[in-house]
Amino acid sequence: MAREGLAIRQSEALVRLGTMALIYVMAFSARLFSVIRYESIIHEFDPWFNYRSTKVFVEDGMYAFWNWFDHKSWYPLGRVVGGTVYPGIMFTAGFIYHALHALGFPEIHVREVCVLTAPIFSGLTAIAAYLLGTEAYSSGAGLFAAVITSIVPGYMSRSTAGSFDNEGVAITALVFVFYGFMRAVRTGSILYSALSAIAYLYMVSTWGGYIFVINIIPIYVMVMLVLGRFSNRLYVAYSTFYVLGTLLSMQIRFVGFGAIQSKEKLAALAVFGFLHLYVFGRWLYSLMPRRKFWLLFSGTVAVLVGTVAIALSWAFRTNFFGPWEGRFYTILDPTYAQRFIPIIASVSEHQPTAWASYFMDLHVLNFLFPVGLYYLMKGVTDTNLLLIVYAVFAAYFSGVMSRLMLVLAPASALMSGVALSEMTNKAAASVFEMVKRAPHDGSSTSSTATLHPDGGTASSTDTAAQSGKRGAAKKAVATRKAASVQGSASTASSSGKTGAAMSRPFKVTLEVSVALLLIASFVLFKYIQHCLYMANHYYSSPSVVIQLNDGSYWDDFREAYFWLSQNTDPDDTVLSWWDYGYQLSGMANRTTIVDNNTWNNSHIATVGRCLNSDEKKAHTIARKLDVDYVLIIFGGLVGYSSDDINKFLWPIRISGSVDPSVKEEDYLTARGEYSMGEDASETLKNSLMYRLSYYRFNEVRNHGNFAVDLVRRVQAPEHDITLRYFEEAFTSEHWLVRIYRVKQPDALGFT
Fold this sequence. Notes:
The protein has about 750 residues and is mostly helical.
């Protein structure tokens, strides 16, 4: 019997291992559409900086990377890259690159590694979801969570091939942090707390979203204390995690002492102190009479509160704690950035999430999420309470900021895994039991089965002949089962495991059971179908190459960047809106004024002032910045809506936040509308952005005998726009990218 049990366990382990391998392959393969449809290319904007930084790390070494001063960005200020970047993703890609070369693959380019880094980690995220789901609920829930996580569109949006962005690897670390901490709470193991802290270190090194983790875990600890679920295991887990995690995170230069001085992390420090005070009080309570305890404890608390109050007063007076981050304010108050920090509000990822995005990025998980939450709350344990807190806060924050859909996606997958596991387990158990009984007692297919708390079933068609001694025996067995179930439920509550033992019995027919299984299979099939569709058509298109419905491509961006790299001096400076800074540096290898780092609001405001000023004033600003070329994006000819004119209000608002003379209403119509038609304001028509966009546009006849802006649906200006201080240098094939040279005055001025 022992050998048979061992063989069964080994078989189960092999099946689990094989299943996880298949899930990993599915997660990796589903993210390769961009490589198949296009080529091996870096996507979007931020990944181009990460790729450029990885090249510096790989080619010049770690010390060169740490000391790298990038003089080709934020001209003339420059940027100290080593101390202003999360280096985790660069080091990860560099490690993979060197490992492959050490294994005998010298022909692999660093770009190929960067392109495939996120798909590699997507499989690891699925494995982490399996571990977390198994720890929080059951192995079935973990398996479903792994399948769902592997292809959930909300996570796939930042983990497709070519999406070399921080979130592609940070989400993996996030799930591992919660798994390690959850297991530490269940076992009281310092080892798992330390492993969770190491995973937290990796997340800190890759993404600023680590602030979510360092606040969710303290909130969970406080919820545990409020619910009276304190244990020494919780104390060991949090104390170890906070101390090690904080010390390790301080090793990241971009974080440093901000790990304890940042206001966003004060909650974790406060909970750490309160937890120790709570444990100290419990220890005193066990040593002395109640009256003496309250006297001593009250005095101790009074002294500590006074000391903390004095310390906080000094800290805030001396600015020991850094200021709140604007994005953190935005999460707490969604209107804050719109009112006070327009540079944050101008980023599309920082906008509130549209309802449609939930259905596109989560699909059926929107409906399974509350079901899984119900089952977890029905049998709350020390461990699954962490999953509940994580899921609830992730759901709220995702509505405030669309970027945090990435955080919600794994939580939704885990909740859906619990829901599907419960539904399929109960239905499958019912079907198997009734099929097993049918040949023996002749019960019909419409017979019912009672699902007991221990997952077993009993036919409701038992005849009266099964009475007497057999009935008494069944009662005794039922009594023992009830006691067993009660004991197992108690054990589950203390250990953190949840299972079917905590469910109440109910009756289902065979037809209902089969229907539930078919529905679950159909839902999973449609979910997979939707995810693959989203991966293929929405998240696998690089922003630098645009595919049309007829299969043709617009490659204007690379055409323009290549022209810059071949036809301009290597030291020339290009002015553009900050969206295109990383691509200009990465593909054209030219000096930029601003880029996607957005660390200097006044510098970005200066660029915005240049674009919204009249031509003469804009030329003066450009000359002060030593600009050689101005690049703008114009989609009016072909209907590309993500051009600079459509986002022109943001340069106006950002420059207005620094220069009070810039007023948004001056660029609006008399009715307060933003229009490029005949009713457009004179201030707008005279702006550099307007003039460079529509220069020579009336020569194009894209709508019969007229030139029509296909994005704004207005006719081109009737009068010819003449430029005195700028001259056209290059216009791409579809007019998407237009580059102008800043004219230098000659002996007679501008002629």
